[in-house]
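@channel sequence for tomorrow's demo:
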Amino acid sequence: MRLPVAVDEITANWLTDALGRRHGGVSVSDVRVAEAMHGTASKVRIHVTYAAGGDAMPPTLIVKGGFSAHRELMYREYMLEARFYAGVGTQASVGWCDGALRHGPVVAPDAINRALRFLGVQPQDGKDEFDTVGLGRRRSTDDWTREAKRP
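structure tokens (generated this afternoon):
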């Protein structure tokens, strides 16, 4: 499957193919771009109309990709992120100072803790760097989801 490199390439046919890989029988009849947010990677919010199999599917989706001119410069970062979300990745970190690479790249199970050490975080009270700065209160997607559902 060819990935879109421009927002106007996010079509009903492309989305049908993309969703069909995990949700067989889903067919998309229309895609309407609601908002495009460009940054390191672009996030495009789309409204989706399903032709078939969409009863349990959301009417709005976010498509994240390299839709900006700098995408060629970001290829490596995009690949790391894609591999991570595909289930073969791990943590990754890099650190820059005054325009020069000073840390990494590090791809390892403790890459975030290494990046925090690079930033000067010292573990305290038997905690790792991640917990020391308070990030550990939500170590998993389930933790974030439970907190978001609280009244």
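heads up for whoever presents: Helices lie at 12-20, 75-85, 111-118, 129-132, 141-149.
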